[in-house]
């Protein structure tokens, strides 16, 4: 078994400061309202009154892993399918009619039905329609990430789920995702392969949340020190109802989630903080302008959910904020926050992963 890297558990003053903000019962802890005020001031100063918007697009629900908490786990009885090229085009056009130009493509773990070749073709197709294309899929090699970057993919989202290695190995019952260290090293491979952005997160509820938050913070800092030109983001997903009925052993309430978000904004002032439609409309509205700078809208967690919104099969999980794009944008504007649908030009979509070890920007080549 490969050992976990030293940076994952190494303590420092910054981690100690974050731990103090996350522990509401400690003597050093600040009141939630104090954290919110400081977080709001940083957000306005660094990001202004804007909210970057994107939407997820599920390409496939085939999966080879047995994640205990996931509605797409390979032992679920969910009807399996993938989008074929004409179906993908219809999905993308339906999303564009909603005003969406920033899309996150998702699959399950690597399978014969939806492996790298399928993903590469889908990225190439999506890049013809959308201003920005990112992926949240299975871990890949540096060469595979480079090939995706050449096709117009600009970023990768990959959650470690939990940094508690014992919990991780227990809930990932079988399949390639069971390899803790291989997944942990994936963001660095993506950046080495030319991805401009990497999104990290833990699935709150799987393990003790303060410990997971501190490990997540160390991961972000580690990547930021090495891949200093990359754009990093942090998401805060909580477990939602899903096929399989998994109940989180460490449930996270709204007050702790708000505290965690404010603490990350204070500790990481220049990092995008992301909140998805897993959260309620009220919670998302409350976080807008205080810390969060990027949100998903009009989300569907089923394969084919935009062109065929009434499809009956269950998604990966239940969403909570089901407002239309128009209603969500109206709520933002009511708070004097401008929704941003496009902040990325395809001309900049070539690879630019630059580390301290390699300060050379690769030239993009057309997708073969």
CATH topology: TIM Barrel
Number of domains: 1
How many strand segments?
9
Question: In angstroms, what separates the terminal alpha carbons?
Answer: 38 Å
C-alpha Rg (nearest Å)? 19 Å
Tell me what you see in this structure.
By secondary structure, the protein is α/β, with parallel strands linked by helices. It has one domain (7-342): Alpha-Beta Barrel (TIM Barrel). It contains 12 helices and 9 strands. An 8-stranded parallel barrel has the order 1-2-3-4-5-6-7-8, surrounded by 6 helices. Helix 11 links the parallel strand 7 (272-275) and strand 8. Helix 1 (13-22) runs antiparallel to helix 10 (254-267). The longest helix has 18 residues, at 209-226. 48% of the residues are buried. Mean pLDDT is 89; it is low at 350-368.
In brief:
The protein has helices at residues 13-22, 32-47, 85-97, 116-129, 142-150, 165-171, 180-184, 186-192, 209-226, 254-267, 281-287, 325-334, and strands spanning 50-58, 102-106, 132-136, 153-157, 197-201, 231-235, 272-275, 294-296, 338-340.
List keywords for this structure.
9 strands; 12 helices; TIM Barrel; alpha/beta
Outline the secondary-structure elements:
Blueprint: H1 13-22, H2 32-47, E1 50-58, H3 85-97, E2 102-106, H4 116-129, E3 132-136, H5 142-150, E4 153-157, H6 165-171, H7 180-184, H8 186-192, E5 197-201, H9 209-226, E6 231-235, H10 254-267, E7 272-275, H11 281-287, E8 294-296, H12 325-334, E9 338-340
Parallel strand pairs: 1-2, 1-8, 1-9, 2-3, 3-4, 4-5, 5-6, 6-7, 7-8
Helix pairs in contact: 1-9, 1-10, 2-10, 3-4
């Amino acid at each position: 078994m490969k050992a976990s890297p030293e940076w994952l558990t190494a303590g420092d003053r910054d981690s100690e400061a974050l731990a103090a903000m996350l522990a509401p019962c400690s003597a050093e802890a600040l009141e939630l309202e104090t954290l919110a005020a400081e977080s709001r001031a940083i957000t306005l100063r660094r990001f202004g009154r804007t909210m970057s918007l994107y939407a997820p697009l599920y390409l496939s629900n085939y999966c080879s892993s047995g994640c205990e908490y996931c509605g797409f786990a390979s032992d679920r009885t969910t009807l399996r399918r993938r989008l074929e090229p004409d179906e993908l085009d219809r999905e993308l056009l339906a999303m564009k009619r909603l005003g969406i130009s920033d899309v996150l493509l998702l699959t399950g773990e690597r399978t014969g039905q939806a492996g790298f070749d399928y993903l590469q073709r889908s990225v190439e197709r999506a890049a013809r329609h959308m201003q920005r294309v990112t992926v949240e899929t299975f871990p890949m090699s540096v060469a595979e990430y480079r090939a995706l970057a050449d096709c117009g993919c600009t970023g990768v989202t990959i959650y470690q789920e939990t940094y508690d290695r014992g919990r991780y190995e227990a809930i990932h019952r079988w399949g390639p995702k069971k390899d803790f260290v291989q997944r942990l090293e994936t963001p660095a491979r993506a950046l080495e392969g030319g991805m401009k952005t990497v999104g990290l997160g833990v699935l709150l509820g799987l393990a003790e949340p303060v410990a997971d938050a501190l490990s997540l913070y160390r991961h972000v800092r580690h990547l930021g020190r090495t891949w200093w030109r990359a754009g990093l983001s942090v998401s805060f997903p909580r477990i939602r109802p899903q096929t399989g009925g998994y109940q989180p052993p460490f449930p996270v309430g709204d007050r702790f989630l708000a505290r965690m978000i404010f603490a990350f904004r204070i500790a990481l002032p220049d990092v995008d903080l992301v909140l998805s439609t897993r959260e309620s409309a009220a919670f998302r509205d409350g976080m807008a302008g205080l810390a969060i700078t990027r949100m998903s809208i009009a989300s569907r967690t089923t394969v084919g959910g935009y062109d065929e919104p009434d499809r009956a099969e269950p998604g990966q999980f239940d969403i909570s904020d089901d407002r239309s794009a128009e209603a969500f944008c109206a709520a933002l504007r009511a708070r004097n926050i401008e929704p941003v649908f496009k902040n990325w030009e395809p001309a900049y979509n070539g690879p630019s992963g630059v580390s301290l070890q390699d300060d050379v920007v690769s030239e993009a080549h057309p997708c073969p």
